[in-house]
Amino acid sequence: MGTNSPKSFALGRVIRRARTQKRFSLKDLSRIIGRDTATMCRWEIGERIPALDQLTYILGVLGVRGQALHYATGLARDPDNTSWLTTDPHDRLAQHDAYIDFEQRAREATIVSPMLVPDLLHTPATAEAIAAAGGNRVTHRERSRILSGAQPVNLRVFLGAPALNQHIGGTATAHEQLEHLAVVSRLPTVELRVFGLGLGWHPGVDGSFSVLNAHNLRTAYVTGRQCSVWLHRSEDVERYEQDCRAIEERALSPEESLALISETARRLR
């Protein structure tokens, strides 16, 4: 039941975290519930989803209760839905946590952000300033390891020029953020390109989104102030990939983008 979708990945993460918190090995849990470890492993990595009655039993064994149980069983009820829309604050946070876990396993990622530096590239001071101003704090400790770890993600970022001039947190914080962008843009697996104003309508002015390839699953993740949606149907993801190609045609080159970021940072000294 349920095959390789954002929801199945998120549910597998719930099971895995509950199991490790209970200090059960995979073999321990498999023995208790009477299933083989190979099946249990497929459930935990999101390749499959257990039937609802089996899932409820597993979560009961692991002590999952209340809102966490409601969230997990909700994932199992419609795992193959082509879109996973969340509006409830608790569900949005849980979805974003699952997305970040998925992101850590990505081989390729493209981020489009017309107005703000994407949270993956925030400095701690920028994240603190956004949280203090009432924004969502979504920067996770060690999240940026995907940029420079043993197997760094191949990352493309299309950043709107307004994001360079938001001055979030004041001049010193903004300067540090720009310097960080310059450092990131020089990493061998990162391509950071700025797109400007006055280009007419194009998908880059229509909102933030990301496209990720991980676990042999291509997904698009679209976020707003009050809701977010995670897509995996190939036709839907392809539309966002087409948008990325359209933005790429209008963006500055990586070298021109680095020069613009560096010059903007220099003016803030």
UniProtKB/TrEMBL annotation:
A molecular-function term among this protein's GO annotations: DNA binding
PROSITE patterns: HTH_CROC1
Pfam families membership: DUF5753
Gene3D superfamilies noted in UniProt: lambda repressor-like DNA-binding domains
SUPFAM superfamilies: lambda repressor-like DNA-binding domains
Location of the HTH cro/C1-type domain: 15-69
Domain of life: Bacteria
Protein name (record): Transcriptional regulator with XRE-family HTH domain
Species, as recorded: Actinokineospora auranticolor
